[in-house]
Amino acid sequence: MRIILAIAFGFICFLGFGNQFIPQENIDILHYSFQIEISDETDEIIGKAQIQFKVLAPVNSFFIELHNSMKIEKCLFENKNQGFKQADEKVNFNFEKPLKNGIYLVEIQYHGIPKDGLIISKTKFNNRTFFGDNWPNRAHHYLPCIDHPSDKATVEFKIIAPAKYQVVANGVLKETSNLKSGKMLTTYTSNQVLPTKVMVFAAAEFSVDRYLSINGNNIETWVYPENKKEGFYDYALAAPIVDFFEEKLGEYPYDKLANVQSKTRYGGMENAGCIFYFEGSVTGKRDSEELIAHEVAHQWFGNSASEKDWEHIWLSEGFATYLTGLYLLENKDFQAFGNYMEQAKQKVYAFYSKYPNKSVIPENIDDLNALLNPLSYQKGAWVLHMLNHQYYNGKIWELFKQYHEKYKYGNANTQDFFELIEANDSIPIEHFKKQWLYSSTIPELEVQYNYNQKEKAITFQFKQLQKSKEPFVYTLDLAWLYPNSIGKTIKTVLIDEKTEKFTFQVTDFPGNIEVDPLGKLLVRFSAKD
Questions:
Q1: What pLDDT was estimated at residue 426?
Q2: Residue 486 in this model has a pLDDT that exceeds 80
Q3: What is the domain partition of the chain in residue ranges?
Q4: Nearest CA among 189, 162, 179, 204 for reference residue 34
Q5: What is the spatial distance between Cα 321 and Cα 339, in angstroms, rounded to a whole number?
Q6: What span, in angstroms and rounded, lies between the C-alpha atoms of 387 and 390?
């Protein structure tokens, strides 16, 4: 999702504290049509939502989420007045006779001042703005919906706004019409299914630049008029980044990519085909390249292939973080990539020192915002980095492409991802998954070596110091450079016991011994004299 500027507050609707999400059985949302009227006189919005859904097996009731700050005027079911009960951030519908299998339409007319989700604010230039900011499940604060990534749907936004505003949203622009009220109707439609976390619109005074990338992708830049020169220059970086990931991962999954200067509380929010960046990202110095790469990578992972439930967020954030590193590797150099991964490692260590009992995939979730931590981002990236070298010999792009192709416009969990990975006899994949994703432990390895001049041999002794009962299993590179030698000698050993000893024949005393010289492992090393 983002480089975080501030932690988001307020969530929870049908994910209770400490409980896992329970899907609404036999209900599948197919399409949302949201009409929202905004004004400069008040922060109140006037909304009308038409929700098309499919009943998979007969049901006597169902619900739509909507925050209690939104007051419902009327509900229609199949164009007829329908009774409802609004409570606990849900709109509940009950029927005397069960709804049979089929497709139905419910309409909710409502109004209110959003408590969250739709950020009504002012730019740093003191101009009024409206920005959707839905993650994790804040969309239902202003949109009637099922606010969970597992239930995806197509969406249409019909925004009625003062004519001075330009409106951007997911999907393609379908209509702009001047209204007698001095307002304008702007309609966007997404032809691809989206989770509500990335389903947004924005209205503000924008300057807009539209162009094609080299690969023919529709790229747009939406920035404040006061800094349009800098913004057009900065956000133009998105075009080659989209093309880079498209060439690696397959076709860009949306009709356009709008890069929008915004009031998001995050560094960037990866809304599908409509990325919102914090307003300070426009500097005219192109110093947000990593941020843009991260959010663009999300278009494939997190938006198109989405996690089935919140605890698998590393499939979104870990992927975007690692793919940003791979972008640096291929578009900058190995040093830039190495520095990036080392910084990620240090963030994991710092977090672990404060929270030693937390794992990438938590058993319980007390606060969705707490998932925005270095385990989901940086440790998730390191999990992929270790998979890359232990299973794919540095050629993991094909796995990423295969994973996205299988779950494109769908959902997956951690098990789904690992089922795509071929078994490895030397490093069991189930053990790998358990130790790096479900365990809170970070391995610590004590390294000691001794050179026997008479036998021309060097002996390494390893001891795993972490407190976990089971030893970690991984391959470890050792490197040394002989005096006057041009290249390094690299030996790879398998560590799968608490204590290990390996002896290698050498031609001379090895100098500059390095452990994990290429930085392939998330392991703490210590030397013993």
A1: 57
A2: no
A3: 27-305, 309-438, 444-527
A4: 189
A5: 14
A6: 5
pLDDT (average), residues 335-341: 97
Say whether 444-527 and 309-438 share the same fold. no
What is the rounded distance in angstroms from the CA atom of residue 411 to the CA atom of residue 500? Answer: 41
**DSSP three-state, residue 458:** strand
Query: For residue 292, which of 323, 314, 265 has the smallest C-alpha distance?
Result: 323
Alpha helices in 313-392 (DSSP H): 314-331, 334-354, 380-391
The pLDDT tens digits of the residues spanning 223-247 come to: 999 999 999 999 999 999 999 999 9
Task: Assess contact for 156 and 32: CB atoms under 8 A.
Answer: yes
Distances (CA, A) of 59 to 25, 94, 144, 355, 429: 9, 9, 20, 44, 41
Give the integer Cα–Cα distance in Å for 522 and 383: 8
Please say whether the structural domain 444-527 has been given the CATH code 3.90.1150.10: no
Read off the pTM: 0.94
CA distance 283 to 150: 37
Q: In which order are the strands placed within the sheet that holds 172-178?
A: 80-81, 70-77, 102-112, 45-55, 27-37, 153-162, 183-194, 172-178
CA distance 524 to 422: 28
C-alpha Rg value of the chain to the nearest Å: 26
Our CA angle for 40, 202, 301, nearest 5°, is 160
Predicted local confidence at residue 223, as pLDDT: 98
Structure confidence at residue 6 (pLDDT): 33
Question: How far is 60 from 98, CA to CA, in rounded Å?
Answer: 4
Report residue 134 as tokens.
Answer: 């839905």
Amino acid occupying residue 423: A
258: nearest Cα among 182, 341, 202: 202
309-438 folds as: Neutral Protease; domain 2 (1.10.390)
Domain 27-305 carries which CATH code? 2.60.40.1730
The DSSP secondary-structure symbol of 53 reads E
CA distance 172 to 273: 10
- Beta bridge partners, 283, equal none
Task: Please state the three-class secondary structure of 74-96 as a single string.
Answer: EEEECCEECCCEEECCEEEEEEE
- In the sheet where 511-515 sits, what is the strand order? 489-495, 474-481, 511-515
**In the numeric block, which tokens belong to residue 149?**
């990534």
Q: How many CB atoms lie within 10 A of CB 216?
A: 9
In the predicted structure, residue 4 carries a pLDDT above the cut 50: no
167 and 201 Cβ atoms separated by less than 8 Å: yes
| Helix or strand run (H / E) with residue 328 | helix 314-331
> What's the farthest any 2 CA atoms get from each other in the chain?
96
